[in-house]
């Protein structure tokens, strides 16, 4: 028997497209004849009783906006056995049998714990970093890529005018996907990712000098957040090459903005799939994308999968960065 009353929450770091996922969950649930609650501020809403009953109109006009209309939070209180039990008791009190959690790996660990306390949970991957091992794609990634690309195009204009080198830090603490893809898209001279160690002389200085000999006068270097020390690296580049160098950290600009078509469509498909799973009586699953297919995995298995870095794409990037 599937769940009759479900809830949806967004948790951890926000990502453009989360609203499309929430909308899809609410509308799919209603279409399956379920009652559906929106939980405010991640797991905190289950601890504080901050939930609202949703209808078809509750999710009107949210899909085109970045951020999340349900707000999000990190909840240290939920991340304790007592917190998980309190949240599960609240769900039982409200008749909530299933919860769709839109968030990253941390949020999925919370969902697994809530399942352990007797509430069916389904995870939907929402994070701009694309750092979830079980899925080829996470909601918000495409918007973040396009924002980073647009911002770096703007930086290039001024870098070019001044014959400078710009070192641009993009998001991605453990995962270089944003850096790798935007690096290719903006024609970066070098791209540094946390997955591949780099040699300062060989991968940056010598490349810049070689490019300079072929007439190149301005340079873009893309660095993933997880590589770190962007300001220090920029100063080293200037000292080693004599080329005026500036650091830019794009930061949270990459988390906002209207979601792209891809994010809206993938989020809608994933939200629908999550509700279909709950309607079929499934629990402890994560929705994922493999190729262009929407699939699902056991949460524990998904959390244990190793993340695979696209070495091929990295090689392509290295060949083109000259
Ligand atoms: P993300 O989901 O983006 O990875 P976090 O790692 O901050 O973000 O996790 C979001 C929230 O999920 C945390 O604030 C906490 O409430 C919950 N959470 C994270 N890890 C666990 C865990 N091991 N057990 C229970 N809840 C967790």
TrEMBL record:
Gene3D superfamilies: 3.40.50.450, Phosphofructokinase domain
Residues that bind ADP: 23-27, 156, 213, 216-218
Binding site for Mg(2+): 105
Residues the entry annotates as binding substrate: 127-129, 164, 171-173, 225, 246, 252-255
Residues at which ATP binds: 13, 74-75, 104-107
Gene Ontology terms describing biological process: canonical glycolysis; fructose 1,6-bisphosphate metabolic process; fructose 6-phosphate metabolic process
Required co-factors: Mg(2+)
Active site: 129
Domain of life: Bacteria
One Pfam family from the record: PFK
Signal peptide: none
Domain Phosphofructokinase: 6-278
One GO CC term, this protein: 6-phosphofructokinase complex
Enzyme Commission number(s): 2.7.1.11
Protein keywords: Allosteric enzyme, ATP-binding, Cytoplasm, Glycolysis, Kinase, Magnesium, Metal-binding, Nucleotide-binding, Transferase
Keyword Cytoplasm recorded: yes
Function statement: Catalyzes the phosphorylation of D-fructose 6-phosphate to fructose 1,6-bisphosphate by ATP, the first committing step of glycolysis.
Similarity comment text for this entry: Belongs to the phosphofructokinase type A (PFKA) family. ATP-dependent PFK group I subfamily. Prokaryotic clade 'B1' sub-subfamily.
Subunit relationships: Homotetramer.
Name assigned to this protein: ATP-dependent 6-phosphofructokinase
Organism taxonomic ancestry: Bacteria, Bacillati, Bacillota, Clostridia, Eubacteriales
Gene this protein is translated from: pfkA
